[in-house]
Design brief:
Helix content: 40-55%
Order of helices and strands: EHEEEHHHEHEHHHHEHEHEHHH
Low-confidence stretches: none
Strand content: 5-15%
Number of helices: 14
Oligomer: single chain
Largest sheet: 4 strands, mixed
Radius of gyration: 19 Å
Distance between the termini: 40 Å
Structural class: alpha+beta
Mean pLDDT: 94
Length: 267
């Protein structure tokens, strides 16, 4: 079941970004939650592939990846060797894919939750940060996937690990049906992936209702609802913590977006 938690005070914000369970086996405070920020709390979870291609997603995904690989190989010569790297690189550069972006950092997710293309909307609507539990999701995987996790003594899949157990998207869809999904930590192809502490959930083609799946099959999924009255306050605090466009989008594009927002005049 998805739990809703309202973030209406700075104290609520502090609790959200500091939640970590104590692990006696490590003597450390750690968890395997990952987070996704959205500027509108009414948004449901959906991949860019589903939003762009709708019910033709499974039909259009293979030729789109094929053409992306054909044209992108000049910049990334090894891309044709892995369907997973094709999707990750494509997602990174705006290609519609079945991947959903997540971050290990709740403050990075809060950045995306408290930033709007039209900054006038910051006061107009609540935003949201989603939280899911990698342990919980990977416990649902077929045995051959869990066997790879045990082999490498880890919880999160790398591209090499998923390639070891699954060679094609068709096989992945057959393995997953609409009952589970893999979380991948991508290779550090770009400073943006590193700075955003990026993870991806690989959504099976048969899983049309991601939100419904999480509500029916998970216990630790949480939606943190950022009240509109607090969004600018959190935004200013994130800037103070150096969580800005300049960091999450390294380069001149991020610098320009940061400065544009920094000098924005509120009505």
């Amino acid at each position: 079941m998805i739990q809703d938690v309202e973030i209406a005070t700075i104290q609520d914000f502090t609790l959200m970004v500091t939640e970590q369970d104590y692990r006696a086996d490590l003597g450390r405070h750690r968890n395997l939650f990952i987070y996704r920020g959205e500027p509108d709390a009414s948004f449901t979870l959906s991949t860019s592939l589903r939003r762009h291609c709708k019910d033709k997603s499974s039909f259009l995904e293979p030729p789109m990846l094929l053409n992306f690989t054909k044209y992108a190989i000049l910049q990334e010569p090894t891309i044709e060797n892995s369907i997973w790297n094709q999707m990750i690189l494509g997602q990174h550069h705006g290609l519609p894919t079945r991947l959903l972006d997540w971050s290990y950092s709740p403050t990075v997710a809060l950045h995306f939750s408290t930033t709007e293309n039209d900054l006038e909307m910051m006061d107009a609507r609540d935003s949201v940060v989603w939280r899911i539990d990698i342990h919980e999701l990977h416990d649902m995987l077929p045995e051959k996937y869990r066997k790879v996790i045990r082999k490498y003594n880890t919880t999160v899949f790398s591209v090499d690990m998923i390639s070891e157990v699954c060679k094609s998207l068709h096989q992945y869809d057959e393995d997953m049906q609409d009952k589970c999904m893999v979380i991948i930590e991508p290779p550090s192809l770009d400073p943006r992936i590193v700075n955003q502490y990026s993870f991806f959930s690989v959504i099976p083609g048969k899983m049309v209702d991601i939100t419904g799946f999480l509500d029916a099959h998970t216990n630790h999924t949480t939606r943190f609802i950022i009240k509109k009255e607090l969004r600018w306050r959190i935004r200013d605090m994130l800037d103070h913590l150096n969580i800005t466009e300049r960091i999450v989008y390294p380069g001149l594009d991020g610098l320009s977006r940061w400065l544009g927002r920094h000098y924005f005049v509120r009505d």
